[in-house]
Amino acid sequence: MSKSFRGAGVALITPFKTNLDIDYEGLGKIVDNQLNNQIDYLVILGTTAETATLSNDEQQEIIDYVCNRVKGKIPIVVGIGSNNTQTVIETIGAMDLSKADAILSVVPYYSKPTQEGIYQHYLAIAKASPLPIILYNVPGRTGVSMSAETTIRLANASEKFIATKEASGNIGEITKIIRDKPKAFEVISGDDSLLLPLIAIGGAGVISVAANAIPNAIAKLTHLALAGNYEGAAQIHLKLQKMSEALFVDGNPAGVKAALHSAKVIKNVLRLPLIPVNSSTYTILKEEMITLSSID
């Protein structure tokens, strides 16, 4: 039986040293901060992790490091996606996923497949995967959106599909998924700013970028909303809005890395083609980190 992915998840960044090597000391600090602040599960090697710039060896090292650091205390999700279905299947077979709990797989990007192509892509992955799968719809990055109908079709096609991370921003389509999905299939927000609205209509929580820097606030907001305390959740949601916007002004994960750098957790380093945020965005994020530290 797969573990639950209700609650507050975090899309972990990959911190780098000034020489662009992976900063495992910084990564360890971030992971420990998640564990100490009621985050429910971790997602590694997603877009926020700059996975496109990581070698295969580095990706496996990160999986091993995070899993060994967590020691089974909370579930681990590993991002494995491509616009080549066979590449996803081969990567799943080549990686040691023995300590992971699920796979997050993005809709094929750049190629712009049809809905039937998306459906067949995921069915092929399900046949190859030893782990349950969280679908990931993020048309702003992939160039194509998986429809509500395709998501529901997949949810009914195989028990391997346990959830979808929805970052389309299309509330109408997300509402259709929540309305028509199988009972055990979860809908997870891929946008921090839509966390509360999605839970209010039946969503399961969030895979958060902001939680890298402010895990306590994201966890508290999520847990209050899931418990039906929308008034308390809304108070935190409103306090987070300025930071939620600033995190993406100059791209992700540049924003959250700047926030973490301002708190002296990591170096403000990204691998090209990504670069650090501009000075005005950095100032906003630094100020918000100070303001939001008061949320208990």
Q: How would you sum up this structure, described in words?
A:
α3 packs parallel to α4 and α11 (254-262) crosses α12. Helix content is 45%, strand content 12%. The chain has one domain: Aldolase class I (TIM Barrel, Alpha-Beta Barrel). The protein has an 8-stranded parallel barrel with strand order 1-2-3-4-5-6-7-8, surrounded by 4 helices. It is α/β, with parallel strands linked by helices and 296 residues long. The radius of gyration is 18 Å and the shape is globular. It is built from 12 helices and 8 strands.
Terminal residue distance: 34 Å
Overall tally of structural domains: 1
Structural class comes to alpha/beta
- Unreliable residue stretches: none
Indicate the CATH architecture: Alpha-Beta Barrel
CATH fold descriptor:
TIM Barrel
Task: State the order of secondary-structure elements, H for helix, E for strand.
Answer: EHEHEHEHEHHEHEHEHHHH
Q: Helix tally?
A: 12
Q: Estimate the strand proportion.
A: 5-15%
Helix percent reads 40-55%
